[in-house]
Amino acid sequence: MRQLLNTLYVQTDRAYLHLDHDTLRVEVERQTKLQVPLLQITAVVCFGDILLSPALLHRCADDGRAVVWLDRNGRFKARLEGPLSGNVLLRRAQHLALSDPERRRAIARNLLAGKLRNARHLLLRGARDAGPGTEDAIPLRAAAAEIATILARLPERDDLDILRGDEGDAARAYFGAFGHLVREDRESLGFQWRSRRPPRDRMNSLLSFLYTLLRADCTAALEGVGLDPQVGFLHALRPGRPALALDLMEELRPIVADRLALALVNRGQLRRDDFEEHPGGAVYLSETGRRTTIVAYQERKQEEVEHRLIGGKVPVGLVPHLQARLLARHLRDDLAHYPPFLAR
């Protein structure tokens, strides 16, 4: 089992990261703020105007340690990668599966089934917490029932575009009820519909930010087993789009990102002032809001969850790596089907 190591997130403007023997040193205005052994870091994520020394970049590339650049609002800008790794036969199997319509549909169907089951689990859990027959529980249970109906017809689907249509129908039901999961300060932090590029309210801003962090982790997990993050099965292939990382994210969004977003808001860890409104209606997390969210995300990755296939508990941060490995085993024909991760 792969050991869960840390991702270093840096968001202080003009911070300077450089190599000091086998450690990474972070300086702000020539003052050392952090020094950590490189062996404890699997990735470095930089927000905004961050400086990195050439020696550090070379070392990260040589070690296979990812460096990701995001803008101040968490939107992906670039990623450093070293030489391609992994077994070329695995990547060939990945491309062959993509070229086989039946096999591609089967993988996409299982990915989608995992997403819908986990989304339904979150809705039902919220309905139980709200109490039977309450104004929040009724729409949450109705959305869960609609998703259950979509789930039941997935095995009959033999067309990828129809599967994507089912995903759209389920997303409308899920996000149509999502606002009923918000219990604190609904006037400022409530949710009406999903908006992106840019997010139009605080909850959408938080969700988009967490999805960015999760995508980076899924990309790293796929690269770690030798798969190509650009070649997916459910999401269409587009230049510069990590389709397989987006595929892997789908089943993990409800239990990692969505659940954490709700916890941050409902526990009062994020408030109205942790967000900034920009011209044109865009809303983004402030620097303080980003810091709070990143810390909570890292803590969430350390929490343990039950993994049904391996029959034991694992840290949340290891789940993308385990799922990437299971997908690789399926592509090698060691597993008959790809088993999505299902929350309990």
Number of strands: 12
Mean pLDDT: 87
Distance between the termini: 21 Å
The number of helical elements comes to 10
| Helix/strand order, N-terminal first | EEEEEEHEEHHHHHHHEEHEEH
Whole-number tally of structural domains? 2
What's the shape?
A: globular
Structural Rg:
20 Å
Strand order of the largest sheet: 1-5-7-8
Poorly predicted sequence stretches spanning 5 or more consecutive residues? none
Named CATH topology of the largest domain = Four Helix Bundle (Hemerythrin (Met), subunit A)
* Major β-sheet annotation: 4 strands, mixed
CATH architecture of the largest domain: Up-down Bundle
In helices, the fraction of residues equals 40-55%
CATH homologous superfamily title of the largest domain: CRISPR-associated endonuclease Cas1, C-terminal domain
| Beta fraction | 15-25%
Q: CATH class of the largest domain, please?
A: Mainly Alpha
Structural class category: alpha/beta
Write the layout of secondary structure elements.
Blueprint: E1 6-10, E2 16-20, E3 23-28, E4 31-37, E5 41-47, E6 51-52, H1 54-63, E7 66-70, E8 76-80, H2 88-99, H3 101-130, H4 137-153, H5 160-178, H6 186-189, H7 202-225, H8 243-266, E9 275-277, E10 283-285, H9 287-302, E11 304-307, E12 312-315, H10 319-331
Parallel strand pairs: 1-5, 2-6, 5-7
Antiparallel strand pairs: 2-3, 3-4, 7-8, 9-10, 11-12
Helix pairs in contact: 3-4, 3-5, 3-8, 4-5, 7-8, 7-9, 7-10, 8-9
